[in-house]
Structures are given as structure tokens and as C-alpha cells.
Amino acid sequence: MNDNGCNCESTDCGSSCSSGSCGSKQTSFIEKTHELNSIKKVIGVVSGKGGVGKSLVTSTLAVMMRRKGYKVGILDADITGPSIPKMFGITKKAEGSEFGIYPQKTHNDINVMSVNLLLEKDDSPVIWRGPVIAGTVKQFWTDVIWGDIDYLFLDMPPGTGDVPLTVFQSIPLDGIVIVTSPQDLVSLIVKKAYNMAKAMNIPILGVVENMSYLKCPDCGTEIKLFGESKIDAIADNLGVKVLGKMPIDPAVAELSDKGEIEKLNNEYLAEAASFIEKSMNLKREENKSMKIAIATEGSNVSGHFGKCENFTIAEIENSIIKSKVVVNTQGNQHGLLPGFLASHNVNVVIAGGMGEGARQNLVSNGIEIISGVSGNIDEAIEAFLDGSLKSNDVGCSGHEHSHGQNNGESGCNCGHH
Ligand code: ADP
Question: How much is the pTM?
Fold first, then answer.
């Protein structure tokens, strides 16, 4: 330790060293993540105060990165105002084992950890003092088994106070995104966040201006509710990039209220996501696309594969439904069905009962089968996407019972006819 009370080895270390600005070695408070984790990049999303849309920006960026094929997690560090689980419609609580705590998964496989997944009731207030809050965030980093993650987004506590400071010091951030709204004393807030990140040597990826304008749903005019935006000039002044501007969009508010943020269909932050992707330069999974065909009877999975006249064919890319159409088999039933489905490049068939002949025929066409499924088609697709849809060929104890004339296409789910 030198005269300035720090571990700086530089001979010209000045008094500013305690802020790290001399770029020297300082005592590091960075905590190690759980030994089962491999987290490549950590991006913090910060704001000057609550309610400017920090969580919405975090969720939107996470959804976009997931759609690009990356493995994504969201650590909800906004302990006193946790809104991430609600935006994704997560209602299940986090589970733990002797090894650590497991995050919950969204429909499209984004890992989420939030204090709301630990509280018995979602509306219980978190009445904790700063050090306890900061300690909880640290635990989300050290004790949660995130597994293999390309991008972990941190929805930071608002402001530049004690808790965000501790988070900045204990979690190794690769960059931060600053979220502001036009009425939000922008200049001061951006500068504070900027200075805090600079002091910690954390790269600033840029600023997102939320609630920039309101687009009139009738005439399309952009109404600047808070006057002309000053964000470009402020960002320019500090040498940071404006990553994007998001309007007030009732459709977005509705999706986030309904827990369906993954159905997002706007491109407001597309450039921001691409910029982060370019700056971080990670390899992503190959685009995984496939087609699933569901034997269809009305809005339900048909119990009779061989007799089925309609199939819902859903195209899936990176665990996301790209398209969904109902096709008529046009008389190609029974033995002709597997060939018909193969001609549609189907990879997986979901159905109720299925005869052995059809089964073998599908397999020889390279088509995977999930049979014994019943109920609503959309729910079956969701279950398929989250990995919980399994063949359920029970309920046929032996073959004593008669299957009548239909050669096993009776709706019995045993699959051994
Ligand atoms: P913060 O994390 O900064 O506290 P949130 O992201 O939770 O703020 O946003 C607060 C509320 O405002 C949420 O209900 C959110 O859906 C809504 N909201 C935020 N930004 C927009 C927007 N651009 N358009 C419509 N609603 C928005």
C-alpha cells in the first residue's frame, strides 16, 4: 500500500487514485460467480430513477439477443422494484438444491433470477436496508446456477447510490447501457451514470432514450410530449453513443402487463442490440430451425393421427414460433400421411393416438414423434418449446381390449398396435 492508502504501484499516483482513475492496481471487490457458471458477457442497464423504463429496455434487449440465437439471462438487481418476472409471465418460484439456486426460464429459454421468485407473495414489499439489498444482488451472482450464458443482463437498481455502487464493484460488468426519459433531468443523470461507470473503468455502451415521443395511433404523427429531445447533444458532449429511441407505445405496455414481452414485434431497439452484439463479438449458436406438425381437430390435438384431415404446421427458429398454418391433407391419410408430412419438411409430429405402421413410417422418414398428447394446440406448442412435452403413451394396459376396425387408429395412445 502506498502513501495514498491504495495498492497502486505507480510512482505518480495522485489523490484521484482512490477512484481508480490512475488505472493502477486497486484492491478488487469483484466476487466470483458460481463454479458451475460460464458467463461470457455481463451488461448492466442503469437509470437515474425508477419508472423510466429500465426494466423494459433490459427485457427488450434480452429478447432480441435471444432471437439472435444467444444464451441469455436476466439478473433482476432492482430488488425493491422487481418487474422482470411479471414482464415475462413467470409465476413459478425459484428452486434450490445443495449446490445453489436455479433461475426460472421464460417461454423462449431466457434464464431469470429475481427477488420476486423468492418471495411467497409477489406483492410483498422488500423492506430491507441497503447492505442487505446489495448482499442479495451479490448472491444472485455467486449462488445462482446460471449455467452457460452468453449475455447476462443486469437490471440495475435505479440511481447512483450505495446499492448500484456495490453492484458495480462486485460484479464484473463488460458494459453499461444508460436509460433516460426526456423529462428526467437528462443531462445530470447521464453525467452521473457516466462518471460512476468511468470511475470503475466500466465501458459505457451508450444511452437509450425511452418515451422519446408518442406515435398517434390514428395519423402516425410523432408527438413530443416532453419537448425536443436533448439526448443527442448530451451524448455527443460526453462522447457516448445514442443506442436508440423508444416511443411511448401502448402495445408494448400491454405486452409487458400481460407477461408477453417475448411476443414483442417492434424494432425500436434493433440497432442497440446489433451494436451490443458487434461490440461484444461473441459466437452464437447456429440458427436452429425446425417444423412441427400437430394433428389438428378444431383447436385441439387430434386423437386419431391416421384419420386426421388437418395438421397445424409451426415453423420454429431458435425456440421462437416464426409461422403457424393449418394445412389440409387433401385425402393423404393413413399410409400416405408420413410422406405428405415429409414433403412439408416436418421434423416432429405431435399427435394423440398413433398406430404402429404410421409410427414406423414416420421414423423411416426421419420424423420424430411425440404421441399421446391431448388438449389445446397452442399449449402443446408452448410445452414443446419449453421442453416439457413428452410422449404419454400410457392408458393402454396390454392389448386385450379391442381396437375395432381402424387398425390402431382408435385414439388409444399406446402405440403398440
Ligand atoms: P423502471 O425499470 O425504470 O422502473 P419499467 O421498465 O418497469 O421502469 O417501466 C415502468 C412502466 O412503464 C411499465 O409498466 C412499462 O411497461 C411502462 N413503459 C416503460 N416504457 C414504456 C414505453 N416506451 N411505452 C409504453 N410503456 C412503457
Answer: 0.69
